[in-house]
């Protein structure tokens, strides 16, 4: 099938920062990355997630096909211990937490006043109830008192809403109840996502996916009143260690992929910075762009304060310009084409089906954060495309890893490279079974990994005097067997 436009999708795994370099989002991410010594990939996506937290409650984005969607993002950072996940989450969410702490103090004052009003109301109810009882026991009609009691019930004091945008260690019921009773926009944000992948939150993935899509959720409870979330907003900003995610994928990954929850994530799994983070007293820390970004996050946070008094306040709807809509449609059509036979997304259609929408959401967040006026233009759409397509490679890396024997072969090759640095040429097969990285001491996994390396002509296995050996440098010719 021929395509009528000049293709715009970048090559898989490529990223050209020239388009996004002038933005505050990119400049502040670079400063934060250098100051915290965290990979720029993870820094940028975490900051973009922070923008989503403060924007989703006050903005919607109207898609070129007419539907309005929240600009919410589900962000997943995959990095090992000591890679800077905690400091990154802390920095990005600091302006939000500061406003939450300030508003919590005010909320406690309003709560005290509410409890006093509620006590007075209960006293009035008790007085009227007793008056009705006395009249009825004497054969009278308490029509006036009944009318007063009905009016009183209509004037029952309402508890004050708490301003809370971020939840951390929480249960699904507490989160959803908070969104109903506090403000109808929230994010589960944590640098220890083990509580999500191993806890009850993971079992609520259906409701989480529905809210990400902008739908309504009904949480039915056996002994308590149902929780109704109508037109609420929820997103995830999670950081997890690779081992925890791997165990989750082994046990529940198929269901999570099948439910579509994982397909909604924008994933970042950057290379490690360990061994490269050096401090110096003479290295100045640039803060100008980051301070501007913090101020912008604080301003967007404060825009949500209106939801405390008026949770049904209409959101501002962002629209694409005519050219921006045409650009997004071209991107979406090219992604759809790549989901066909032989396409880049053929093996992950769940991810591909959500990618174009994520492009629109990211473009909307850039538009909001940068303070652009008017509709979303093609240049902003292409920024969103560059970002989502780049992190699409991370998604494949995390959720579509190569076969186990390929992974084991890579790990075994790395170990052999260490031995070659110390001039190892030949080693006994049994020594490899006893001294290889622990997972490869399994007989079957070691054999399969060696078969891959043999096929690549990186090693050679041979027998000598009834003993099996591994030649680590077969390209240098046969080893000197007299030394064995």
TrEMBL record:
InterPro entries: DUF3987 (IPR025048). It comes from the Bacteria. Residues 97-131 form a coiled coil. The keyword Coiled coil applies. The keyword Coiled coil applies. Keywords: Coiled coil. Pfam families: DUF3987. This is YfjI family protein. The lineage of its organism: Bacteria, Pseudomonadati, Pseudomonadota, Gammaproteobacteria, Oceanospirillales.
């Amino acid at each position: 099938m021929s395509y009528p436009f000049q293709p715009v999708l970048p090559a898989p795994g490529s990223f050209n920062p020239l388009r996004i370099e002038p933005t505050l989002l990119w400049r502040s991410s670079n400063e934060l990355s250098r100051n915290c010594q965290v990979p720029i990939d993870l820094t940028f996506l975490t900051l973009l997630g922070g923008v989503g937290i403060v924007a989703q409650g006050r903005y919607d984005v109207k898609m070129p096909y007419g539907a309005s969607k929240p600009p919410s993002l589900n962000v997943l950072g995959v990095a090992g211990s000591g890679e800077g996940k905690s400091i990154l989450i802390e920095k990005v969410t600091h302006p939000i937490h500061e406003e939450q702490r300030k508003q919590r103090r005010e909320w406690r004052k309003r709560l005290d006043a509410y409890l006093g009003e509620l006590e007075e109301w209960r006293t009035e109810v008790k007085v009227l109830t007793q008056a009705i009882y006395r009249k009825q026991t004497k054969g009278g009609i308490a029509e006036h008192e009944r009318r007063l009691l009905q009016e009183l019930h209509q004037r029952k004091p309402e508890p004050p809403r708490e301003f809370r945008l971020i939840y951390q260690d929480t249960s699904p019921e507490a989160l959803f109840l908070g969104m109903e009773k506090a403000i109808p926009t929230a994010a589960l944000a944590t640098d220890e996502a083990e509580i999500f992948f191993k806890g009850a939150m993971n079992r609520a993935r259906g409701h989480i996916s529905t809210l990400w899509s902008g739908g309504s959720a009904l949480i039915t409870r056996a002994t308590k009143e149902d929780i109704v979330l109508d037109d609420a907003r929820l997103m995830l900003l999670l950081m997890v260690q690779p081992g925890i995610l791997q165990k989750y994928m082994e046990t529940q990954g198929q269901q999570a992929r099948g439910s579509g929850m994982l397909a909604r994530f924008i994933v970042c799994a950057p290379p490690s910075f360990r061994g490269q983070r050096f401090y110096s007293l003479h290295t100045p820390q640039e803060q100008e762009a980051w301070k501007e970004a913090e101020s912008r996050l604080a301003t967007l946070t404060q825009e949500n304060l209106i939801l405390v008094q008026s949770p049904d306040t209409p959101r501002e709807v962002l629209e694409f310009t005519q050219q921006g809509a045409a650009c997004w449609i071209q991107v979406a059509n090219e992604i759809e084409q790549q989901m066909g036979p032989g396409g880049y997304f053929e093996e992950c259609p769940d991810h591909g089906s959500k990618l174009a929408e994520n492009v629109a959401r990211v473009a909307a967040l850039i538009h909001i954060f940068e303070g652009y006026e008017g509709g979303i233009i093609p240049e902003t759409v292409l920024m969103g495309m560059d970002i989502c397509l780049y992190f699409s490679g991370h998604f494949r890396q995390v959720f579509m890893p190569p076969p186990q024997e390929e992974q084991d072969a890579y790990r075994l090759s790395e170990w052999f490279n260490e031995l070659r640095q110390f001039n190892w040429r030949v080693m006994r097969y049994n020594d490899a079974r006893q001294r290889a990285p622990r997972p490869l001491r399994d007989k079957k996994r070691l054999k399969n990994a060696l078969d891959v390396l043999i096929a690549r002509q990186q090693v050679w296995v041979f027998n000598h005097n009834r003993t099996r050996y591994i030649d680590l440098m077969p390209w240098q010719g046969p080893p000197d067997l007299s030394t064995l």
